[in-house]
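Assemble and predict.
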Amino acid sequence: MHYQPQLPVLQCLTLHVAAGQKLGLVGRTGSGKSSLLAALLRTTELSLGQVLVDGVDIRRVPLARLRAAVSLVPQEPVLWSGTVAENLDPAQRALPKDLEDALCKVHLDKKLDMGSDTRVEMRGNNFSLGERQLLCIARCIARHSRIVLVDEATSCVDGETDALIQDALHRQFKGVTMLVVAHRLQTIMDADLIAVLDAGKVVETGAPGQLLAEQTRFAALCEKAPLSSLLSL
Ligand SMILES: Nc1ncnc2c1ncn2[C@@H]1O[C@H](COP(=O)(O)OP(=O)(O)OP(=O)(O)O)[C@@H](O)[C@H]1O
């Protein structure tokens, strides 16, 4: 993948994720983690290579179908002005009850007394970053997405909202294939597989326990991480 000619962002990269598995993606800033998610959603097209889902090249899948099956919780979600329902389900395919259920599953109904007719200001400015992420998680739930991509927020999310995000990700996507870009390592300690990226390449893969037991880049990253980010280890 290239954003500029002569500057490959992802290269010689092969990853297999089995259906229902959780893959944790780590790597230093600029290593290509978000770009990998962009390739899966086709928000940026690969210049070489392919992404296969169930053996089908995603370029052969109509974009609307791909994006119904693959949902993203971005680092910095931007919402559009309107109602919560319009943000959760722009195509108006879901039943109102499914939208209310999704809000309930991420606890936004209680936290903000939010319902599908709650107003959203331009860019979602009346919600915090964490609350906007929770809304995106509710969108994935309402869509019954088979593949969920999570780009963890790098900016600060308050503790209470962060706990709701982690709880929702942990409990609501059992059996769903998840790719999680982690900036805090504890969020992927339950992953089936970790991939460490460096300069657009996968330089290490393995189960978290296996990587931690050896002298790996992942183990070194964990050693450097602040204790507070590893308390659940
Ligand atoms: N839209 C874009 N246009 C041009 N270059 C880009 C664009 N998006 C990313 N890049 C470049 O591609 C490389 C990989 O960026 P990417 O955002 O995928 O890394 P990352 O590992 O997700 O980083 P971070 O941890 O900081 O989010 C970087 O060099 C970045 O500057």
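Residues 2-230 form a domain with the Rossmann fold fold (CATH 3.40.50.300).
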